[in-house]
Amino acid sequence: MRAGDQLHADRKEEARTCHAERSRAALLGVSVFALAAMSFSALAAKPAFAQEIAAGDDAADADLPEIVVTASPLASPIDEIAAPVDIVTRDDILGSSATTLGALLGDLPGVTQSSFAAGASRPIIRGLDNTRVRIQENGIGAGDVSAVSEDHGVPIDPLSAERVEVVRGPATLRFGSQAMGGVVNVINNRIPKAIPKGGFAAEAGASYDSVNDGRQGHGKVEAAAGDAVFHVDGFARKTDDYRIPGATRRQSETWSETSGVAGGASVILGNEDFDGYAGGAISYYDSKYGIPAPGDPLNPVHIDMHQTKVQLGSELEFADGFLAGVNLAGGYSDYSHGEVDATGVTGSRFDDEEWEGRAEFLHRAVGPFTGAAGVQLHRREIVASGEGGELLAPSETESAAAFLFEEMPIAGETLKLQMAGRVEYADVSGRALDASVPLAPTDFAVSRNFTPASFSAGLVYSPASKWVFGVSAQHVERAPDALELFSKGPHEATETFEIGDPTLGKEKALSFEINARREGDDYSFEAAVFHTSFSDFIYKRLTGEVCDGSFDTCTPHGAGTELDQVLFTQEDATFRGFETRGSVTLMRRGTARVGVTGQFDMVRAELDAGGNVPRIPPMRAGAGMFYAGERVSGRFGFLHAFAQDRLSAGETETGSYTDLKGEIRYLLPQDIVGGKAVELALVGENLLDADIRNHVSFKKNDVLQPGRNVRLVVTARF
Fold it and tell me: Which of 51-55, 127-131, 217-221, 484-488 shows the lowest mean pLDDT across its residues?
């Protein structure tokens, strides 16, 4: 080994050792802090709120409106929110064969998925992905490197979620630059917020998928001891390569093995002055999955991913005084993954350590204004080694932000003005490529700092019960990500040679939106029209050159044969689109309902200088019918994606497809199952066995989406 190579290897090993030591120390410190906080809470408050819930009074048992917590600091019923919000319920999650958040959400209006691998698929919202879509768990970021590359999975499994809230459009003002395109908030009860009815609750389930011989099981338990509530959950899944249309073929390297376990506890607080909770949770996630269409079919690569995460949370509501409530959340994540070939050799390794903390302070009326103010802190360190180190040198990102949200009634509860603002400071440091000597490139240390500032104003109009209309304007800014600034080498997964630009400036967007929503069993409806003008939009531009594994092969008319060269570039761009969906009940019989549903979405994205933004999803339309009864329910419908022929340079046209789906659920009589709630579900996906290629996927030319699937699900709650 050369002396320089040995020095580089020694530095990588030293970085790993220091990273591991810091991770263990941080994990111990956070755990001790969580236990101390819960112990203090137990001594400080009388559990009046806990006793009230445990007693199971009529108020607690009554049907409550569905509350959305992601779109605004002021948690509100969904029929009072103008922002486009979708809620995916626990039943929807258990009925889906999705192993990733992207696959789970990909059929929602305005949402598609990257579908790179069976274990790696991020949501794409209104054509925006990666660093513009924030994925979080209970308000705290995922703590991963999924935005660095499409083959990197999100270490949040759908099975861990009680529900998922998707806010389409800018959510930057509350959650930061990564929410410029939208936010996906996975909500679970790992930090319990209330004592379960009767002091105990549990769920267990299992499922089988025919398309990939997939087997999965999950379970969770919540139990109370006085004013303390404990939570434990776990899941495991194993799938083989999935079948694709045509004979008995399978798509190679689409297998996955995933498991996770989590435990949490909280203390329910309450007296005559306040109610709330304080607690913490720790979770471990493990996933292995194949990468389809490998560059070398004889030496396929798979991802071996691990994450340990600690989260703390507390919410307090005050009976009197200026402060109406305080919401605190914090998290620490220690993440790593290796990219392992068929011989067991790890070619690339990514280690990511992140801290994040948030505090929101809700205040009562000050003159006509009611609202909330908050602060957010974040620190991230990415260390890549092996081939991954050729793409991205170690980088650090630190940010601090303050935000404000205010609401003012103009005409009682009918018309409200909402205003928000956010100022953020971000410091990004790493090593960038110096390509001034193409045949002997070097890298150099760079530190950049940015101050994104964003603000919004909107009107919310509620002319009648269950109806809400909104119009809003937002100016949002985003600091470039480390990958966009400092990329400097081969990216084998996407078959590109990526070169960042350390001189990139802030990305800015001016967005206008008009939306409407109507909630109800008789009929529901939502629609949104949006227009966003980007200034200095950052995207990957194909240069037309082809490279091998080093920069010198990327010189004009060089010797490269494998990797398309891309440059992170800034240009002005315009996104505009429309999305809608609705349902109508046509007939009732007792408590049962029969009705129809429909949806439509489209987005157009063009560079102002000419041409289309790459990898924009096609126009889609769908329709279906449903039956909803007390014991039996079902639905049947299709989603049609039109051909995408609005292409960027280097893209190819993607044909249309129709995805036909159906499901039926049956709740067993309780006298048969000993008083427990046991549900059986039979779900069919891609029932036409259609050839489905996802236009936004880097693998679309080589990888078909799964063929016909029949899924059997059993769920028991007690």
Answer: 51-55
Q: Which helix (H) or strand (E) holds 598?
A: strand 592-607
Q: How confident is the model at residue 699 (pLDDT cuts 50, 70, 90)?
A: confident
C-alpha atoms less than 13 angstroms from C-alpha of 525 in its C-beta half-sphere = 12
Dihedral Cα 687, 691, 692, 697, nearest 10 deg:
150
3-state secondary structure of 583: strand
Q: Per-residue DSSP letters for 345-380?
A: -EEEEEEEEEEEEEEEEEEEEETTEEEEEEEEEEEE
pTM of the entire predicted model: 0.88
> Exposed/middle/buried for 688, CB within 10 Å: 0-12, 13-18, 19+?
middle
Pairing of strands 507-518, 467-478: antiparallel
Q: What is the widest separation between alpha-carbon atoms in the chain?
A: 81
Helix (H) or strand (E) holding 336: strand 323-341
The DSSP secondary structure of 162-204, one letter per residue, reads SEEEEEES--HHHH-GGGSSEEEEEE--SS--SPPGGGEEEEE
Of the candidates 353, 346, 305, 333, the residue with the CA atom closest to the CA atom of residue 16: 353
Position 663, amino acid: E
Evaluate whether 371 touches 361 at the Cβ level (below 8 Å).
no
State both tokens at 331. 């998290």
691 three-state secondary structure:
coil
**pLDDT grade, residue 559 (50/70/90)?**
low
Residue 7's pLDDT band, with cuts at 50, 70 and 90, is: very low
Contact assessment for residue 575 and residue 605, using Cβ atoms and an 8 Å cutoff: yes
Say if residue 339's pLDDT is above 70.
yes
Q: Which of 37-46, 149-158, 423-432 has the lowest mean pLDDT?
A: 37-46
The architecture in CATH of the region 3-717 reads Beta Barrel (2.40)
* Separation of alpha carbons 441 and 438, rounded Å: 6
CB atoms within 10 A of CB 463: 9
Phi, psi torsion values for 624, nearest 5 degrees: -170, -175
Q: What digits encode the pLDDT tens for the residues 232-291?
A: 999 999 999 999 998 668 999 999 999 999 999 999 998 889 999 999 999 999 999 999
Q: What residue ranges in 519-562 does DSSP mark as E strands?
A: 523-547
Compute the average pLDDT of residues 3-12. Answer: 40
What is the C-alpha separation between 636 and 626, in angstroms, rounded? 6
Instruction: Determine phi and psi for 305, rounding to 5 degrees.
Output: -115, 145
Q: What is the separation of C-alpha 3 from the centre of its chain, rounded to a whole number of angstroms? A: 43
Question: Exposed, middle or buried: residue 439 (CB in 10 Å: 0-12, 13-18, 19+)?
Answer: exposed
- Note whether 714 and 678 are within 8 A (CB): yes
Q: Report which residue type is found at 128.
A: L
Can you give the pLDDT at residue 77?
77
Q: Where are the domains of the chain?
A: 3-717
Question: What phi, psi does 12 have (nearest 5°)?
Answer: -65, -45
Residue 280 is encoded by which pair of tokens?
A: 């913490």
Residues 244 and 222 sit within 8 Å (Cβ to Cβ): no
Write the DSSP assignment of 381-429 as a string of letters.
EEEEEEHHHHH---EEEEEEEEEEEEEEEEETTTEEEEEEEEEEEEEEE
